[in-house]
Specification:
- It is a single chain.
- Helices cover 60% and strands 6% of the residues.
- By secondary structure, it is an alpha/beta fold.
- Among the domains are: 10-32 and 381-481 and 494-505, no CATH class; 44-96 and 525-551 and 843-878; 552-758 and 769-830, no CATH class.
- Residues 397-424 form a coiled coil.
Length: 878
């Protein structure tokens, strides 16, 4: 529904759908700009008063337990370790990064959506048409604590080794585009070069090395690259590497790893980044200008904003399917860090694109509310368009149209009366009618907006429901995927303010931006709530018990007799971890790898049929062009082709099913490990209590410490198991999606390279012509390489097996470290309490006495106000 009549916004008038035709209610003054700060605060864990109680409580406890050590003159290795541990666990806690990755096609509205979410203007770069090609990954995060400028950007360049790989890749692309698409045998020669790739590579060199004569223009750059004798011509590469080194040294000032830019406004900052984030065009000659974008890995924007202040980082990367060396490398590098995903797509693509479905499916496996679908430009609708809807909806649309027509008629009649008054010279009445006409024009706009807004809402609801149903079938989640139909353009009009006659078609709320922002603001809730629970239940109690051990130091003459129980778990925990991981590894092998291995024959048959279809659809030159472009063609008369992608798609659905069923075994694996480790700690406690020395020494502080400290073990196990789940998701992605590190993509790379070399050539080294001719020989060889036993498909199941083994080995080592740290702390705590020497230093005695008093206060605060606040927080958000 449109924004209100005159200065009122539609929230004030929308309650009455049958608003009376009362011109007195129409205000002709300009509607002021909309302020996002007026919105209802998001339902965020960190914005509650309970969270503040927990934060302040942590600070209070730190002061209580560290204060006595700060004031005391008694310092030992033990006291220093206690203070350092407190500062590490409570003052500098590790918090999970919330990285929201926004993905979508170029020109789809990613930047516009980001800018709508921010309160600080257009921080994300937009082109003249409201879109901009993302040349490198952009990360938007909160301002640094010491940051003085409102806006700061850090430009990260690729390391030297990667820059050299990029340059070598560009030379290879250019050489293949120049020499790899023609065949002496069919007389095509150089006629079938790929000018688009050559132009792209030439543009890259001009952007980077315009100062050198060889690269002052694309023509000169092409001439320079045409001198290459091979795709890895050493002379040219050495020159490119030398230019690269000088360029980076000059730009960064020597040893700096980043370039830092600051500004007082977003526009000023974006202008400074032109030489790093855009393909610059010189105004004088229209040629490519100097820009370092081909070497830029990441641009990180830092500024103050309500969303980023919640700990949310937004990530905008180039498309993973982009074939540009820089953009593809940047996307692959940073996409893996995302915890949540916003998919910006038009309704048709979101409904039918398998990439959207796969992304939604993978992210939903990590937990609820991990993915959002955004449909931009939802405000565009034709005057005659009637979307699907109920009979009631369509009847209301008709009624609203009639109201609009009545308003138009009233305005026309008023204009006629005004013209008549002017003819008769009645200026006073003409002025009255003129004001009335201006109000009627506003009324016409309002009724027209109501009618359009109603039809837009009908279409949006229909589109959202269709997409939700489609994704529900694919993700099998209990909660539907959130879908938002947004209008960034109309939202910006509200931000700018407007005259009543230019009232936007949709209200602020109907643009869906406030709702989308509120949902995204809840993304950190799960992580922050778990962090609060870990601190309240485990970290702080464990820390206080360890301090209590220090105050309860008890000399024990036969310390070694009891210490053996504390040492026993240290030789057993690794065996328990291995005993849990080995069966899990075997289960994954039996449920994923073995079925993939038995699928080889069937996959080869499907791949052979696919190869034959490619042969029929692509004649000599198109087929060779495909091979030279790693099996990829964007479109054109022959249609889009992605050979590696099609090969992946042959069994992607089945592979996903195997992973889903195998992951179900994960819960029992986690449970069995936790039970055995818990039994190990429980046995230690039992042995200590049953030892004959137990009655002669007060071990209760140590036993209390053990009972509290052992809660760190489940936390460590769950964290590791979560990483295993995420690792398995990544392996599934490599087996089912078209990414640079996909198993099929990596396996096919040498096939494309080898087949591309099969051509007649020239000179003394000219190869003998095959009986079937070079074109058919290439197709035959390609099919043989793709469909051979122990070939492409073997790379899939061996890659899966290798990655699963590596993942579990890494997590086994991580568990050995984290769980081992707990049992080692048992030993160090026992040593600290059961010191064989009586405390005689008066300074240490005074320290212990003060600490005892403070520990009592700390425990009271932890179990009182902090516990109450945590329970309320858990009840509200869990």
């Amino acid at each position: 529904m449109a924004t209100g009549i005159g200065r009122k916004r539609d929230a004030d008038i929308a309650k009455d759908d049958a608003l009376p035709f009362d011109l007195d209610k129409i205000d002709l003054r300009k509607v002021p700009p909309y302020g996002p700060k007026s919105e209802q605060a998001p339902r965020s864990v960190t914005m509650t008063k309970e969270w503040q109680v927990l934060e302040e409580g942590r600070g209070l406890i730190v002061g209580l337990v560290v204060g006595p050590f700060t004031r005391s003159e008694h310092h030992t290795k033990v006291t220093d370790e206690l203070v350092e541990r407190t500062q590490r666990d409570l003052l500098d806690p590790k918090r999970e990064d919330i990285v929201v990755c926004i993905s979508g096609n170029m020109g789809g509205g990613k930047s516009a959506t980001l800018n709508s979410l921010f309160e600080n203007g257009s921080v994300a770069r937009e082109g003249d048409s409201g879109s901009s090609c993302t040349l490198a990954s952009n990360r938007f995060t909160k301002a640094q604590s010491e940051q003085k400028s409102p806006y700061l950007a850090e430009v990260f360049l690729f390391p030297v080794a990667e820059r050299r790989e990029i340059l070598a890749g560009y030379l290879r692309d250019y050489f293949r585009a120049s020499h790899g698409t023609g065949d002496e045998e069919d007389g095509s020669g150089q006629a079938n070069t790929n000018p688009a790739i050559k132009d792209e590579v030439a543009g890259v060199l001009v952007a980077l090395f315009k100062e050198y004569p060889q690269c002052r223009s694309k023509k000169e750059a092409r001439h320079f690259l045409d001198g290459a004798d091979s795709e890895d011509d050493l002379e040219i590469l050495v020159k490119l590497f030398d230019w690269d080194e000088k360029l980076v040294k000059r730009t960064t000032g020597g040893g700096a790893k980043t370039i830092t830019l600051t500004a007082s406004t977003p526009g000023e900052l974006i202008a400074q980044l032109d030489g790093f984030a855009t393909e610059v065009v010189d105004e004088d000659d229209g040629c490519t200008g100097a820009s370092m974008w081909p070497f830029v890995s990441l641009i990180e924007f830092r500024f103050h904003d309500p969303t980023t202040s919640l700990g949310i980082t937004f990530l905008d990367t180039p498309g993973l399917s982009d074939h540009n060396q820089t953009r593809r490398r940047s996307a692959n590098k940073y996409c893996k860090t995302k915890t949540h995903s916003i998919i910006v797509s038009d309704a048709a693509r979101a409904k039918d694109d398998p990439m959207v479905a796969n992304e939604a499916k993978l992210m939903s496996q990590r937990g609820p509310d991990r993915v959002v679908i955004v449909l931009p430009k939802s405000d565009i609708i034709g005057d005659a368009t009637m979307p699907p809807g109920t009979r009631k909806d369509k009847q209301k649309a008709k009624e609203l149209r009639n109201q609009c027509q009545a308003a138009v008629k009233a305005a026309e009649q008023c204009e006629e009366r005004m013209a008549k008054c002017e003819e008769e010279g009645d200026e006073d009445q003409a002025m009255v009618l003129n004001k009335q006409k201006r109000k009627l024009d506003v009324w016409v706009k309002y009724t027209d907006n109501r009618e359009k807004a109603h039809r837009i809402r009908m279409r949006s609801e229909s589109s959202k429901e269709t997409i939700r149903e489609k994704l529900q079938d694919l993700t099998h989640t209990t909660r539907p995927t959130p879908v938002f139909a947004v209008s960034n353009k109309l939202y910006n009009q509200h931000l700018a303010g407007f005259s009543p006659k230019d009232t936007p078609v949709l209200s602020v709320d109907e643009t869906a931006i406030p709702d989308l922002r509120r949902l995204i603001s809840t993304f950190p809730n799960e992580a922050r709530l778990n962090e609060a629970r870990h601190h309240q239940i485990t970290v702080i109690p464990s820390l206080l018990k360890r301090f209590a051990l220090y105050t309860a130091r008890t000399p024990l003459e036969r310390k070694s007799d009891m210490e053996k129980y504390v040492l026993r778990p240290l030789v057993k925990y690794e065996e328990i971890i291995k005993g849990a991981i080995d069966p899990f590894a075997m289960a994954l092998k039996e449920r994923i790898v073995d079925p993939l291995r038995t699928e080889e024959s069937s996959w080869i048959q499907s791949a052979r049929a696919l190869c034959e279809r490619w042969e029929d659809a692509n004649k000599t030159t198109p087929f060779l062009q495909l091979i030279n472009r790693d099996g990829h063609r964007r479109g054109g008369k022959s249609g889009a082709v992605n050979m590696s992608g099609d090969l992946i798609a042959l069994r992607s659905k089945k592979i996903s099913g195997l992973f889903e069923r195998a992951v179900q075994y994960h819960n029992s694996f986690e449970k069995s490990m936790l039970e055995e480790l818990d039994d190990l700690a429980a046995d230690m406690l039992t042995d200590l209590r049953e030892d004959p020395n137990y009655g002669f020494v007060d071990l209760e502080p140590f036993l209390d410490y053990i009972n509290t400290e052992k809660t760190r073990i489940p936390h460590a196990v769950r964290q590791s198991c979560q990483r295993i789940l995420e690792g398995l998701e990544n392996i599934q992605r490599k087996a089912t999606l078209i990414d640079e590190d996909a198993y099929v993509v990596e396996a096919m790379a040498p096939v494309y390279k080898d087949v591309a070399l099969l051509k007649a050539g020239k000179g003394p080294n000219k190869l003998p012509r095959p009986k079937c001719g070079w074109p058919q020989h290439r197709k035959n060889t390609f099919k043989q390489q793709v469909t051979r036993i122990d070939g492409i498909w073997a790379m899939v199941y061996t890659g899966v097996q290798s990655d699963v083994v590596a993942l579990l080995q890494t997590e086994q080592a991580a568990l050995n470290h984290s769980v081992g740290a707990v049992f080692k702390d048992f030993q160090s705590g026992f040593d600290m309490m059961c010191d064989t020497k009586v405390v005689s230093d008066p300074k240490e005695k005074a320290l212990q006495e003060e600490l005892k008093v403070n520990l009592k206060q700390a425990e009271q605060h932890l179990n009182g106000p902090m516990r109450k606040a945590f329970d309320a927080l858990w009840k509200e958000f869990h």
